[in-house]
Structure formats: structure tokens, C-alpha cells
Amino acid sequence: MKIRGDIVRLYRNVHSWAGITAGLFLFIAFYAGGMTMFELPLGNWASRTSALPAPVPAERLSELVQKAQAADPTVATNHTVVLHPNETSPSSLMWTVSADRDHGPARTVYAGLAPDGALVTQTRTPSQVGYFLNILHQRIGLPLNREYGRLIMGIVALLYAVALVSGTIVLLPSLIRNLFALRLTENLRRVWLDFHTLLGFCSLPFHIVMAATAAGFAFHQPIMALEKNLFFPAAPTHLAQKDNPHHGQNPQALLEPMAIVDAFRQQVPGLEPDALAYSSRGGKLSLHVMVHDTAEVARRPDGGYGEVNPYTGRLTATDFLPGHQTPAFQVLTVIYALHFGTFGGLLIRWGYAVLGFGGAFLFYSGNQLWLSSRRRRERSAGLTEDSFGTRFLSILTTGCMIGCISGVSAVLAATPLLPEGGHYQTVEALFYAVFFSCVMVAVCLGGARSLRPLLAVAGVLTLLIPLTDMMRCLASGAVTSLALSVDGVALVYGVVLVTLALRKGQRQTPAAGVAVTP
Question: How much is the pTM?
């Protein structure tokens, strides 16, 4: 394909500057985003559930709920009946006593029945490590609140889209000739460039989806507000009351949990309820019947739900019920599923994780390639030292990116030692303490000179994950397959990072343009 040389140069410059501007943020978003593919397993790994009240048989669920409501009347409008307890929801009945949307899982009461029928409760906060990694991903590493974090994330997503389009245009003239030409025998910069090009092109559909959906998530509130004002005028009060399924009712009693389950099974054959979540909205009690079917596309990792009348068992809304949505909600669900990988089961989640970590490397290699080209131009112009701009970007690239790796590893290594598996404020403070410490090391030593010591720090912190977790397992006397999986991955990853930091030889890196060993 023929494209004029001046057009290619223009788009190469656009690609470089858009990528450089967004690359630091996107590295953190993709690195933490790869972790969020396993947010639920990480939460289970971090939480300590062995001492919680044991589940009760299905026939005693009503007894459990009644005794909990007698002990605390607020439970009536705020509780979840777990039909299939697991590591995430270990007890048959849970309710929250405090909530903070920005700071993860709420303070929760877990309830069960003693052998003599007495109510047994325990209050604790589920580990918030997995939730913190998700928020770190959503806010691209910035310690901002939800509103401002999403706004900046949306701007970065638009720059990301510009970098994707311009990079594709730059690649088109040499697509057939150079795409799969990995010139491993040439200098290291050429090898990095070939891998950057191949990785970027092969994962282009994934990155297009990520850029488009991230921008949509960032700006969906103002878009929806505009649509509501333009196309959906507010209904009169008497009509709104008429549409309320509970309006005018004077219910005497709620259906028992298993009666709700039986009614749901009759109305939605093929979907097995996992939990019954009761809450109060506008002074009316509402019920979400939670389901999780891996054969269906879901909006969230934990599945979807159907809205049910808690007094009659009648299904009142299926907007978020997998396989029973209207076409408009199906489109929204597909958009969410494409971003979060909530379809296709474990294989898709592993694929998304690999693409996420690959995307992080894509942004790291892009910044390093830009630095290498910048240094070559500066040496050709007679400069013997890096300019301020080059030094500044080199410091940010090494400090922020390796700092992100070190911060995440420090959080996971500390999780087994933290009370209740780590509260949000604690793990957030730990992450940013390690992150900014790495940035300060890069400022003091320079981006190129700090690369090896920071890689060593990241490797050591990663190797501490299996060490601290095994200490916890030995202390509790329980070693689970999940713990072995997390520890095994961390061990291999930590060895790789330490090996990179300690490698010998005088090979040239695109980051520094000089030997990586002193």
C-alpha cells in the first residue's frame, strides 16, 4: 500500500506523542487490569473465612433469617441469603453495617446457627485488595475520587484511540514486508521495535475494544443525562406511582427464601439462583435474585440478576438477567462483557489477562523506543548528555512503571500479614508509598541507572508473596490449591524480575542506549 512519506511522518509523530502522553497511565491501567481478571479469586485468597459461621441447610434458611431480624430489625431491609456458600460468600446469611462505594467491600455481618439453634454472628470486612486493584485500574493510577478519576481516564482513552489509529496508518506501507519479520540478529533496539509492532498489530482488536469501552464508561453519565433531558421527559408523579410494582400494596409477610427460589425456577427454567439480595429503595423492599451462568454473557464477573417481588415471587424485571434481556440491554451487556471479559469462562479470563499484561509491555516498549530515538537525534546534534525532556520522561517511565509493579507486589506480599486481609486505606497507602519511593529513586539516580535496582526491588517484593503466604498457611495449618496457584505464579514472576535485574553482559537497551551493567 502506497502512502505519501510526509503523511506517514505526520502520523508517526501523532502516534509517538499520543502514545507517550497516555503510555504512563495506560501501563498502570493494563497491569492492574490484568490482575482484575482474577479479582474474585484474589479476594478469596486474601480473605480469612475459616472462623466464620458455617452454612445452614436450605430448610433452615427461614429460621436463620427470622432470628437475625429479631436480633437486629434493620436486617429486614438489608440482607443477602446465600444459597450456595463458597469462599467469597462463606455463610448462609450476610448483611452490611457500613458501606463506602469508593472504598470497596463494606463492613459485613456473617450469620449462622449453632448446634443448639442459637444465632451465631461475626462481623468483619472482606479483604479489599482485589477491589483496590480494580479501582487502581479504573483510575489509571491516580489517587483521585471516582468523578475526577473517570474524567481523566476518558481523556487518556481518547488519546489511546488516536495512538491506535495513527500507529496503524504508519504500519500500513510496510505491513506485508515487516509485520512478521523479527530481526533477532540485529541490534536490540530493532528487536524491541519488531516485537512492539507485532504485538500492537496482533492485539489491535482488543485494544480498540478497550479504548472505545473505556471512553464510554468515562463519559456515560453526562451522555445519559443529556439523553434523558432530550428524549425522556419526566413522567407525572401519579404515573410514576402507577408503574411502581409495589405501589398500593399492603403486604402481610414476605415469602420464605425457598419459596422465592421455587417461584424463580418455574419462571426462568435453566437458571439456578445463587443468592437472594434484599434492599430498600424509596421506602420499598426490593429483591434481586442473583444468578451466574458461564454459558451466558454477563455484565459483571459475578453474573446477573432478576428483580423479583419479594411478597409474591413474581419476576418483575429482566434487564440484568442473562439470556432474558431486551435487545437494548443485551447490547449494553455485550459492551461491558467485552471490556471485563465476563464471557467464555476461565479461558477467556486468562486470555484477557495475557492481553492486559502484553498491553502493559506495549506501552513500556513504546516509551523506551521513543527515548532511544530521541537520544540518537540528540547525539547526532552534538549533545553529550540527555536534554531535560529526555531525562524527565526516562525518570517517569522507569519510576512509574517499575513503581507500579513494585507497589502491586508489595500489596500482595503484605496481604497475608494485614488485619482482615487488608483494608482499602491501608493497601492504598502501602501502594503509593512504594510507588512514589520508586519514582524518587529514579529522580535521584536517573531513569537509565535506576532501572536495574528498581527491577531488583520489584523482584524481591514479588518473591515475598509466596513467603508471607506460606507463613500464613503454616500458621493456620491449611494449604489450599488457590494459595499454591497464587504462590507459584508469584515465584516464577519474581525469579524473572530478579534475573532481568542481575543479567550480565554489555548488551544495549533501547531505554538507555548504553550498557545495562555498570
Answer: 0.83
